[in-house]
Amino acid sequence: MSHTLGVRQAQKQKTRQALLDAALGLLAEQSLSSLGLREVTRVVGIAPAAFYRHFKDLGELGVALVEEALGSLHVMVRAILAEQDGAEERIDRTVAVVERHVRAYPLHIRFIARERHGGVRAVRQAIADELDRFAEEVAAALKSQPVSEGWRDDDVRMLAELYVDRLVTTAAALLDADEDGAPGAADQVVRTARRQLRLISIGRRHWQEEGDLS
Prior knowledge:
Helix 3 runs parallel beside helix 6 and helix 6 (121-143) packs across helix 7. It is built from eight helices and no strands. The protein is mainly alpha-helical and 214 residues long. It comes from Streptomyces siderophoricus. Residues 13-73 form the HTH tetR-type domain. Residues 36-55 bind DNA. This is TetR family transcriptional regulator.
């Protein structure tokens, strides 16, 4: 009996992943709000009613795609920030990680870029929540670094949000550059991202809390 249940569970997980993959492929050319449930189930080869064994609606499927798209990036960038090398090395490695992630998961990046301000509220909120957790993790890593000694928590959080925003913007820009195919476009995005992050880093080292700005 346990073997049968295990087989069924594995098949259910396989179908669930197939639905996610099918939706992601279809979303390369359209927004989630315009996607039809029947379109997704047709690609997978299941009856529309079977969709509800896995997700209550397309919004819930979209939330699962958000978790799939952003979850692994958290771990990679957090590991880099935890290292004790200099700021220049951390910036270079972080941008390289984002670049590799875009090349490995272009459909996920396109989905996040489009739906971050899209029409499905649950998905917008899921993206905002994931980026908020990302900022919390980055802030914790930044807080542990000696250069942050004496900083207020809200200032560290503000800095973390600047970094996260740059990384998300860079990912979307890299995707656009790759799709555009113009020679050197992606390299220019990478150079710009490194310069922007270095500018933030320089500002961090010289940040002084002004009384009239607090």
